[in-house]
Design a protein that fits this description.
Helix content: 40-55%
Strand order of the largest sheet: 6-5-7-8
Shape: elongated
Distance between the termini: 23 Å
Order of helices and strands: HEEHHHEEHEEHEEEEEEHHHHHH
């Protein structure tokens, strides 16, 4: 376990939270705004935060730009929207005059509405790709110093999954399941996310490949701030622990690496959520605004590089969550547009209203749950 370090001061949690979610939500909504403006859709309001307006101004196009009291998000309200969540008001839309319909979001072509909605998550994805690319250009790619020394078992932990599977010292691990592994980092990627999983390990022993079944062990690990997570383990100590060196990469390879890194992060998110839903992981691992604030402050205390990398992860997280097919989220709108494309007509006003109400209720219930979850994870409540 890493050596524990002192927790950051409380003000750093607040600063980290605002510096993280403020810009990420703003660029998300600005993606909606730019795509809407590109297609000639009017924007009535662009807000950073929800609730009562603290400060703002109206530009020459009639858009009200404002900073609102509750810094937990933001919105871009287009012309014709019933509210900031872009929930359509069928009666209001039907009663619009031809002049009012000009520039109305709900009277734009279906493909334009879909692109405007998708532009928000897409902007968050682009931000993450940009951060990953910049890091790749600055530091290069990790290369194992000597492939011949990689993944060679030094010893086995007593009672571990590897010992039970019959893995022996000096075996060279070459695959986990059907996935080849070239170094210990790739082994960790195939094991850590899957505590208790039944799989197989292929080793090279005396020039022969041997595949043995294995059930990954489970362990609770804590980072340097004491944050706990459940991880999978096979229980080996590697014979050689060589640090990888980094080789410079060009712009093209840096971008390609950023796509692979983003795909890995999304895969981890999907896997984690699926494990929570299936009961393989505790719901206590779900986090809300308080936990994001805690992690933000901790990463900010480690320096700009750690915080910016964390921002890339949260940016992808925001894009992923917003693309879920839940009414009132971007993914819910896109689901309605997909149904409209298939049916050649919109979902009925009553059906949309009921779905959006259910979606809002689901989101509020989830927010309440994760907030309570966050509170119960604090030392005061644990005691």
């Amino acid at each position: 376990m890493p050596e524990l370090i002192e927790s950051p001061p409380f003000w750093l949690y607040i600063a980290g939270f605002l510096l993280l979610l403020g810009p990420l939500v703003t660029v998300h909504e600005f993606g909606h705004y730019l795509m809407g403006r590109l297609f000639g859709v009017g924007v009535e309001a662009f807000s950073v935060g929800f609730g009562k307006e603290i400060a703002g101004f109206t530009d020459r196009r009639g858009t009200r730009w404002k900073l609102s009291a509750l810094p937990l998000g933001g919105y871009c309200q287009f012309k014709g929207d019933m509210n900031p969540a872009s929930i359509p008001d069928a009666d209001a839309i039907a009663s619009m005059s031809p002049a009012e319909r000009d520039g109305s979001f709900h009277h734009a072509a279906l493909w334009k509405r879909a692109l405007i909605v998708f532009a928000g998550p897409l902007t968050n994805i682009i931000v993450a790709l940009g951060i990953f690319t910049a890091f790749n250009l600055a530091y290069g790619k990790p290369v194992p110093p000597d492939p011949a020394r990689a993944n060679i078992v030094g010893s086995l932990l007593p009672g571990s999954a590897a010992e039970k599977a019959g893995i022996a010292p000096d075996d060279k691990v070459i695959a986990i399941g059907e996935t080849p592994v070239a170094d210990v980092m790739e082994v960790a990627e195939q094991v850590m996310l899957y505590p208790g999983r039944s799989s197989s390990v292929t080793v090279l022993r005396d020039g022969r490949e041997i595949t043995v079944p294995v059930t990954f062990g489970s362990a609770v690990e804590r980072d340097q701030f004491g944050n706990a997570s459940t991880v999978g383990r096979i229980g080996v100590r590697w014979k050689y622990v060589d640090r990888p060196h980094f080789e410079p990469v060009g712009a093209g390879e840096a971008v390609a690496m950023s796509f692979r890194q983003s795909a890995t992060v999304v895969d981890m998110m999907v896997t984690g959520i699926a494990q929570i839903v299936s009961g393989q992981r505790s719901v206590k691992e779900l986090g809300g605004p308080l936990k994001i604030a805690k992690f933000s402050g901790e990463q900010l205390s480690l320096g700009a590089q750690a915080f910016i990398w964390f921002a890339a992860l949260i940016s992808l997280n925001l894009a992923f969550i917003n693309l879920l097919p839940i009414p009132a989220l971007d993914g819910g709108h896109l689901a309605f547009y997909a149904a409209e494309a298939v049916r050649r007509k919109p979902i009925g006003a009553r059906g949309q209203e009921m779905a959006f109400r259910a979606g809002v209720a689901m989101i509020l219930a989830l927010m309440l749950f994760v907030t309570v979850n966050d509170l119960l994870s604090l030392p005061l409540f644990r005691r």
